[in-house]
Amino acid sequence: MTSPRNILKKYGIHPFKGLGQSFLIDNNITAKIVKISDINNDDTVIEIGAGLGVMTAMIAEHAQKVIALEIDQKLLNVLQEELKGFTNIEILKQDVMKYDFSSAFSEVREHAGDLRKLKVIGNIPYNISSQILFRLIGFRDYISTIVLMFQKEVADRIMASPGTKECGLLSVINSMYTIPSRVTMVPASCFYPKPKVDSAVLKMVVRETPLFEIKNADFFFKVVKTAFSKRRKTLLNNLKSSDLLQSSKTDIDKILNELEIDGQRRGETLTVEEFGRLSNAIFSEM
Fold first, then answer.
1. Alpha-carbon span 125 to 118, nearest angstrom
2. Nearest to residue 43, comparing CAs of 119, 144, 147, 145?
3. 166-187 core/surface letters (b: 16 or more CB in 10 A; e: else)
4. What is the three-class DSSP state of 90?
5. pLDDT tens-digit profile of 23-62?
6. Number of folded domains in the chain?
7. Same domain, 161 and 127
8. CA atoms lying within 13 Å on the CB side of residue 183
9. Domain with 243 in it: what CATH number?
């Protein structure tokens, strides 16, 4: 198995802080990530931030096809050289925040003639990890499984239950559309350069249907985001002071009373179902 340290030395690669680069150098953790992803020989897997190609090669040994996304040109050159022996890897210079996951899904359907969904794996930049997760959830119709590395504190927020201080936009949206589980903790010593924080790998199985039926997914997102906009404020105050209701005559007090949701509660105390019911009720009144 290729050593990440040897690859770095071979090509004289130095991590670029501007891209949030921190290379996973423990191949045991890498192998565990690939194993937990349950990759089959008819799967198409998209890897976010292929980096040195170590995990890319492991994935390719199990998958039908790997689409490796990378934006650093130096690393793209490394990938082209290190992975040239594989015929089932497509390397793309692509920003994950601009990549259209539906295009890969359409390609799978065109060639395989079925609706087998994509699997997404990645050791992602921590500075945009939340945005990446929300983007992937936005493409949930095309994805079956998401396995990502997060900063431990972010992973804790994603996994948080209602009523805890960590509960927020991340946990509510993620719970609505996926079934998350914590795969493993990853200490800072497993990376180069060594970050100041520990990490955690989460596996999120995309639900066939949302946890609660909602009338408008974008509006649901806005309601949840509004509820957590000022965490010290009550649910009622956050909703009343937001732009969400400024252009309508929606009686939020009446809606909350009808739903038997106390407006003096704070956002972190609401369940996903309560957020769903609230979103649907407000949307119906607008």
1. 21
2. 119
3. bbbbbbbbbbbbbebeebeebe
4. strand
5. 999 999 999 999 999 999 999 999 999 999 999 999 999 9
6. 2
7. yes
8. 24
9. 1.10.8.100
